[in-house]
From TrEMBL:
Family to which this protein belongs: Belongs to the UPF0332 family.
Tree of life domain: Bacteria
PANTHER family in the record: UPF0332 PROTEIN TM_1000
HEPN domain segment(s): 6-117
Pfam families found in the cross-reference section: HEPN
Name of the protein: HEPN domain-containing protein
Lineage per the UniProt record: Bacteria, Bacillati, Cyanobacteriota, Cyanophyceae, Oscillatoriophycideae
């Protein structure tokens, strides 16, 4: 299995875990898995462009530069990445903020669409 396939498999596993966590009302953990599903998918995309970055900030910046600004992928995917990242930051580092079921469902929807659309792009390029 190549590295791109490994990242996409991990992204799909993260989505499955997120779905189970939502069913059990573990909202913070679900949002974290949603973000990591997107993160793994972006890593797979960056490999296609021969870009290697390790930081979360670098991944977001490189994704925007090489896929959103070029028009190769939808601006909606950039929005999905930004929103799930922000929610993960709140969920992981701000214990006072309540994470709602609605926010969690939105994050899962964004992550699912992101992985689907990016996987389609990977399969056609």
């Amino acid at each position: 299995m190549n590295q791109i396939s490994s990242y996409i498999n991990q992204a799909n596993e993260e989505l499955e875990a997120a779905t189970l966590l939502l069913e059990k009302n573990y909202y913070r953990a679900c949002i974290s898995r949603c973000y990591y599903a997107i993160y793994c998918t972006v890593q797979a995309l960056l490999i296609v462009k021969n870009i290697n970055t390790r930081s979360h900030r670098g991944v977001r910046q490189q994704f925007s530069q090489h896929f959103i600004q070029t028009g190769e992928l939808s601006l909606e995917l950039s929005k999905a990445l930004r929103i799930t990242y922000d929610l993960r930051q709140l969920g992981d580092y701000d214990q006072v903020i309540e994470i709602t079921r609605e926010q969690t469902k939105i994050a899962l929807e964004y992550a699912t669409v992101f992985v689907e659309q990016a996987s389609h792009w990977l399969n056609t390029h």
